[in-house]
Design a protein that fits this description.
282 residues, alpha+beta, Alpha-Beta Plaits, 4-stranded antiparallel beta sheet, 6 helices, 4 strands, elongated, RRM domain-containing protein
Length: 282
Amino acid sequence: MDSSDEENGGSRSGEEERSDEEMSDGSGQDGSSDGNGNGNLKSKEASEKAALKKAKSKKAKKGKTGVVYLSRIPPHLKPLKLRHLLSQYGEVSRVYLAPEDAATRIRRKRAGGNSGKNFTEGWVEFVHKRDAKRIAAMLNGESVDPRKRSAYHYDLWTIKYLKKFKWDNLTAEIAYKKAVRDQKLAAEVSAAKKERDFYLSKVDQARAINSMEERKKKRKEPEANGSSSAGGAEKPEDGSAKKPRIVRSFHQRKSVLDSASETKSSLAADVLAGVFGKSTVK
């Protein structure tokens, strides 16, 4: 009995130890899961804060930029070359050059000028506003390239700093001009379509009128044939215009019998006159 109770007691104590270990393991697992969840939340909050900080810094940096305007672009000057020339004086962010009109380029090419692509005006954005102000004041009216062998040595800068002007204003203006140009093109296309439809409708109307006239002519032909046959007119074989029938009269000679009787009577009178004398023959 004692031994069995000891065995039972030992087994119970072992089971209690196992249950305690399992409970401790479960609590450890819950703690680790809670730790992972807290870590994910913290990392998410940190990433959001970094993104917000980056956006704020970008906005602040964007507010510090300066834009200059170039009213004239020398021939053959491309955006890459312009960036290279201005980057010597300050850090350039963006460059936009407005291309010339296609009609102007065609006229210049026909006149014997250069066939390359030229630009009429441009905008340059500098990273720092102070650089834009300084460069506009320093380069306005100066030679584009001070080197004498350069193709742009005799061209002058026509540059001006735009106060309170941001690059978004330029993009909005470009988008507006593009929308106006597209709208104008759509209006011209619609007008051309209307003219084409009007022309085609007139062509169809003319064909319908011609077919109606042909049917009327075909209906009148049998009536004209009947009237011409009654009046003595003949229908020509070649299908030309109808002509009235002409009846001609010719002078007819006298018949042979009438001439013979006259000769006979005249001979008898002559013979009698010769025989009996003129006095007796009357």
